[in-house]
Amino acid sequence: MDLAARPWLASYAPGVPTTFEVPAGTLTDMLDTSVRTYGDAKALEFFGAATSYRELGGAVARAAAGLKSLGVRAGDRVALVLPNCPQHIIAFYAVLRLGAIVVEHNPLYTDRELRHQFEDHGARIAIVWDRVVPRVQRMPADIAVTTVVSVGLIGAMPASRRLALKLPIGRAREARAALTTTQKLAGPRRLVAWKDVLRHRPLPGKHPRPVATDTAVLQYTSGTTGVPKGAILTHRNLLANAAQGRAWVPGLQAGRETVYAVLPMFHAYGLTLCLTFAMSIGAKLVLFPRFDVGMVLDAAKKSPPTFLPAVPPIYDRLAAGAAERGADLRSIRFAISGAMSLPQSTVETWEEATGGYLIEGYGLTETSPVVAGNPIGPTRRPGTVGVPFPGSDVRIVDPENPDVDRAFGEAGELLVRGPQVFQGYWHNPEQTQAVLLEDGWCRTGDIVRMDEDHFITIVDRIKELIITGGFNVAPSEVERVLLRHPDVADVAVVGLPGAAGEDVVAVVVPAPGVEDLDVEALRSHCRGELAAYKVPRSIVQVQDLPRSQLGKILRREARAQLLEDGRPAEGRGDRR
């Protein structure tokens, strides 16, 4: 144990190793090992339909052959636009088996948001939830996609569930409409059914395999600038972070854990904790296409969860729902919260309901994503994000000069170095150079403070991103949309404390001649171009915005003024 170089090791929970080596091989090798080791054990469960590890391995081999027949080659980008479902897992590993690169997308994104990412990565093949296929089909002809693989969720469900969805009653029709579409899927791009991709013979074992340094995933993030960029994550990056997660949780029982995938797997947090970590320990992964309290509690009766990665609002709602229904959550031994601050009240309520631990962690897409976590044990420290993960190094530096370290107790920017740190931004060397420094250090853009025991507390964010419901919202993106409305002269978008971490609030200067802003019209305008979580919850009308001497809008001052005056009511348009 090198306490001189990594003094935080003294705060690790008993059983957590103080030395760390990245496992050899790739994510493909990792899955193959789990298939061999846990063959007949359940790998996936979806509305009660189970898939064993052996069946999963076979499906990945067939899907890889099917994608190869569509022209996917090593190094190609393949877009995944899918909710949590078995097909998502199969497609993810099938793409990697060919040495190609997975590009994850939020299926709730608008046409404009999807188009920006597709323009950037240039994927020719897209594997898409059938409800989203029309959105991809109507992309302009200059988008590189030539083939769309349509995925229906209902086909992955058990026969009894599929039959129930066909019943001629309103509730069944509503449930079916939420899972699939009746829209015409045809369009200018070739359309292939997922079931046809799976009809191929398994890819031969001798087919060339990826290597650890190959790019595995492009994960889009707003990073430190507010402009979405593709973070390049290699097999080694993702394999390392999954192994770091395994090391962090003493008491894990390989082949016997049940992990609930309530986090979306197109998000870096859900991707690592579910797509890689869970598969690496031979866990049964119970998949939910969206979070619903009743759905989760119903599943818990038949497949009690033991490990639940989530965000604070999910823990609050599950604990309340369980208390109301008299449901038992005491099977959950481990719960790891991320993406937003974890209130102490949530910890107390959750641990009383489960008898297990709920700890907070910290990470960012550029670090695959986990950097630090509270120890799972009595040394944890609520209110902090814990200490660095095994194999990770951190520094607290002057944000204006990252060569200058800050003393204990002083706030500064957090730098991270470790095997989980990304390789840069896709086709964006300028931003890569701004974030990746010499000797492997990565600038996080987060202002933190480290105490004498080396626990990290988040103080502020340089990047001014808004975190709502665990998702990042770039203020500049929302501002650009609002500025396209004729009633808006200027705008600052900020985050204010809310039930889901932060609420998106727009402070708007109306255009000349506009007396009172039509708040609902502005929100409707936003809904046409932004995912629902990015649409401002509140819109505040002002005569002017705080600005620097050069005329730059000062978002932090606008936010401080709102907090001083009293935050606006939900969905409201105030005049200030």
Automatic annotation (TrEMBL):
SUPFAM superfamilies on file: Acetyl-CoA synthetase-like
InterPro entries in the cross-refs: AMP-bd_C, AMP-bd_C_sf, AMP-binding_CS, AMP-dep_synth/lig_dom, ANL_N_sf, ATP-dep_AMP-bd_enzyme
Record bears the keyword Ligase: yes
GO molecular function annotation: long-chain fatty acid-CoA ligase activity
Keywords: Ligase
EC category name: ligase
EC number: 6.2.1.3
Domain AMP-binding enzyme C-terminal: 477-552
Residues of the AMP-dependent synthetase/ligase domain: 32-426
Xref: NCBIfam families: PRK05605.1 (NF004114)
Protein name as annotated: Long-chain fatty acid--CoA ligase
Species this protein is from: Arthrobacter echini
